[in-house]
Amino acid sequence: MINIEKHWYDVVVIGAGGAGLRAAIEARLAGKKVAIISKSLFGKAHTVMAEGGAAAAMGNVNPNDNWMVHFRDTMRGGKFLNNYRMAELHAKEAPERIWELETYGALFDRTKDGKISQRNFGGHEYPRLAHVGDRTGLELIRTLQQKIVSLQQEDKAQHGAYDARLRVFAECTITELLLDETGGQKRIAGAFGYHRESGEFVLFEAPAVVLATGGVGRSYKVTSNSWEYTGDGHALALRAGAKLINMEFLQFHPTGMVWPPSVRGILVTESVRGDGGILKNSEGKRFMFEYVPDVFRKQYAETPEEADRWYTDPDNNRRPPELLPRDEVARAINSEVKAGRGTKAGGVYLDIASRRPAAEILKKLPSMYHQFKELADVDITAQPMEVGPTCHYVMGGVEVDPDTASAGVLGLYAAGEVSGGMHGSNRLGGNSLSDLLVFGKRAGEYAASYTDTLAKRPKVNDKQVAVAVEEALTPLARDGGENPYTLQSDLQDVMGDLVGIIRRKGELQESLSRLSELRERIRKVGATGGRRYNPGWHLALDLRNMLVVSECTAKAALEREESRGGHTREDFPKMDSKWRQVNLVCALTPTGEVDLTHQPIPTMTPDLLALFDKSELAKYMTDKELS
Ligand SMILES: Cc1cc2nc3c(=O)[nH]c(=O)nc-3n(C[C@H](O)[C@H](O)[C@H](O)COP(=O)(O)OP(=O)(O)OC[C@H]3O[C@@H](n4cnc5c(N)ncnc54)[C@H](O)[C@@H]3O)c2cc1C
């Protein structure tokens, strides 16, 4: 007889990064009983790793900034494939969400006159990233956790227990969402998972679930993402009947560490370039001036002199090309390396040492200094760093309603990196931290109000629970099954080699047939040992999520015959305005295959269209759309 620990909540939030914590706070403030579930330790999420800052048009450093400029930058960055309504809400609400963090106790760096300081970042017209040195994510998580503790203290005073209305389940992985399908309509009824340490199963009965599980980067070997980003939320949503959009768009951050091999992929923050760092090839040439695409030519400097003047006089000079959106810089580095002008380890040089005094580097980039000193024995105040592209962020994700964050299945919501649409084909740096605050809050609010509309709670189906138990136990029961680590490595090879930064038709076709072979092998995955802390078993369970998400990416990448943002096709090197009108949508067939369809993207409202010059829109839109 399998023992299953049972809990009863109004709202279950899966994920304890910024999106999950902000959603949980909002649902709790609405009076709901809320569980926060986290695969990793509490406080250890992608959000904590964020370095550069959170983008919000507060206009503290340049008063010309406002939500309309931020909206324009976000749409340009996403090459106009963004869900315009999400980009609008994000630009309008981000400043409020940042100021609100201060009321929770956040301590941002300040300007001389005491306002929240804001720094430059790629694709943002004005200094816009609220930051705490290069440890912004740490402050964000610390503050949200502090708010949670303060709410728990209120609950202790009112209800006699700290976790009466807000409880954290750390090191607990959700493997399945549970649905009530009575009357032919799917409604969320709960979530099933296991405690990582004991291997014991756990069931959360709840009418509303917020997915806040972050990204998918572990499907690639060279990635800035950590072990838990196996696309669980994306896969859970698919299996529950929701859809994924834009999965072909993956952001390869231009600057990951490339040396030594053990740390390849770890992020080198864009703040290095925002604060004056420049990129050079092995011949010592500052090469980015040669890679400014026509659509951005007007906004970027043509000479190093103009670019350097911009740091002190941004109103009369144009930005350095090192601050182009990330997809452009990543492709440029890739081209330099391919042309034989890379470093021995396959990267290029990022130099701040010759550009800023050591004391300033230490003050503004303390984490980068320690990262390079400890991991690569490089002193960034005296030597250049070696960098190259690393898989960093997934623009694609769960299709949501922009206002409510509803994922299209009753009771299911998604926010943060797991959701799709907001960033279009490419995310601007800093826009994720603000995204997760804006839409985390909205998801929590609407999940809570949804539970108020229910006449009775959806019922958990015991058969579904039995299937979830069996699914989880099968790898342990299988003798001589495939090794999960080998399977993960093989999957990463397929994605890195065939669905990487530059894509080609033949390779994408090959990736799909290799993924289909992997599907068969993953069905036979085995894990030795028992249920007590067993990472091999955990990975065996994660693999099916990584696989289905990778299939979505490969299928959509093959289908989209153009290059845009985080999707570059060597055989279709240009943007095509016909493709801008289309979202590629993935759903699962009843037999679990990925089904891909085209869906028209929502048409931008005239008031928002009027924020752009017609000549600029003409670079992205069809004549029909413009008329
Ligand atoms: C090194 C680095 C630097 C970055 N710097 C910046 C920056 O400066 N500015 C910016 O805007 N963005 C930055 N980003 C991106 C940004 O940090 C992330 O996109 C963002 O934090 C994602 O937040 P999230 O709340 O959606 O998910 P995360 O913070 O990734 O949290 C996901 C949570 O879900 C949990 N989880 C996952 N699967 C399961 C499961 N099956 N069951 C239970 N729990 C699960 C995880 O344990 C975790 O708690 C950076 C990213 C990295 C990696």
Describe this structure in words.
This protein has 627 residues and is an alpha/beta fold. It has 3 domains: 4-49 and 135-250 and 393-459, 3-Layer(bba) Sandwich (FAD/NAD(P)-binding domain); 253-391, Alpha-Beta Complex (Flavocytochrome C3, Chain A, domain 1); 476-576, Methane Monooxygenase Hydroxylase, Chain G, domain 1 (Up-down Bundle), CATH 1.20.58.100. It contains 20 helices and 20 strands. The chain has helices at 18-29, 46-49, 67-77, 84-103, 136-159, 232-240, 271-274, 304-310, 326-341, 358-364, 366-376, 431-452, 462-477, 484-498, 505-523, 535-559, 577-580, 606-609, 614-617, 623-626, and strands at 4-8, 11-14, 34-38, 54-55, 118-119, 129-130, 166-170, 172-180, 187-195, 201-205, 208-211, 244-245, 250-257, 278-280, 348-351, 385-394, 397-398, 412-414, 582-588, 594-600. A 5-stranded parallel beta sheet has the order 7-3-2-11-18. Helix 14 (484-498) packs antiparallel against helix 15 (505-523). The mean pLDDT is 95. Flavin-adenine dinucleotide binds next to helix 1, strand 3, helix 2, helix 5 and strand 8. Flavin-adenine dinucleotide binds at residues 14-20, 37-40, 45-47, 49-54, 136-137, 173-174, 212-214, 224-225, 228, 232-233, 267, 393, 416-418, 429-433, 436.
